[in-house]
Amino acid sequence: MPEGDTIARIAHVLGQALTGEQVNGARGRPGGARLDLVVGQRVESVEARGKHLLMAFSNGLTLHTHLAMNGEWHRYRPGERWHRSPSRAVAVIETERQVAVCFDAPIVELIDTPALAIHGRLSRLGPDLAREDFDVEAAVAALRDPARAASTIGDALLDQRAVAGLGNVYRSELCFLERLSPFTPVAEVPDTTLRRLVERGAVLVRANSAGGARVTTESGTPGNLYVYGRTGRPCRRCGTLIKSAVARVYPGANPRRVYWCPSCQA
Questions:
Q1: Which pLDDT tens digits describe the chain residue by residue (266 residues)?
Q2: Within this chain, do residues 105 and 155 fall inside the same structural domain, yes or no?
Q3: Which of 56, 101, 115, 152 could serve as 44's disulfide partner, Cβ 3.0–4.6 Å?
């Protein structure tokens, strides 16, 4: 699933391409969002909120997409051949100079912009790490909520209601960087450690929003990641073999694999 840095990068690219442009054509999947309602309107902004993308139009409507595991936004020139089948397009926004296409996203909806404040998912998002005004103390307070006390810190970092924008890569990498087992209950994690986790997460998410491969390792360290995707390979710190396990974060959620070093994060 794309994490907050990926969505922030998509918002930046689409924002540069579309903001201020008039929509000459728009369509979605059959029975889906009525994107024809934005034809003739200007694109006013493209914004990331955690893992959600919001495209606002001059008639007071906003296109909300969430890419989940398989969705992607592509940008093309008019007439350019698409890299995925048109049958997989769930939202198409056409201007004179650009064509933005969303493929395979499970959530595509057109919302009255004022209604975003009461939207079931968007209104409950925690502080967004990709934003320059990210509120560290609010994020720590949300993680410290008594309802999360028994959750593991690895699971809590994935809870978008606490901190918006972190995904499976960052939860594994941040716990490694803090030498913290991802299975530690939140109640046992000191406030100072929670603060370092979200502060470092914000730094990494913003740095990786600029593009290129996602990097969490320090300068001079071989490779881009410390533990994620490295099951059975030696830890970059101590040489111990990296472990992983599949866990279901909450009932009904997709199982996620978490990675850790059993020595560094004991």
A1: 689 999 999 999 999 999 999 999 999 999 999 999 999 999 999 999 999 999 999 999 999 999 998 999 999 999 999 999 999 999 999 999 999 999 999 999 999 999 999 999 999 999 999 999 999 999 999 999 999 999 999 999 999 999 999 999 999 999 999 999 999 999 999 999 999 999 999 999 999 998 889 999 998 899 999 999 999 999 999 999 999 998 765 555 567 899 999 999 98
A2: no
A3: 56
Give the start-end residues of each E strand in the chain: 25-28, 43-49, 52-57, 61-66, 72-76, 89-94, 99-103, 107-112, 243-248, 255-260
CB 196 within 8 A of CB 33: no
Same domain, yes or no, for 74 and 153?
Answer: no
User: What's the pTM value of the predicted model, to 2 decimals?
Assistant: 0.91
φ, ψ of residue 4 to 5 degrees: the values are: -60, -35
* Other C-beta atoms lying within 10 Å of the C-beta of residue 112: 10
Active site residues: 2-3, 51, 256
Give, in order, the Cα–Cα distances in Å from 247 to each of 46, 67, 91, 220, 257: 34, 21, 33, 32, 6
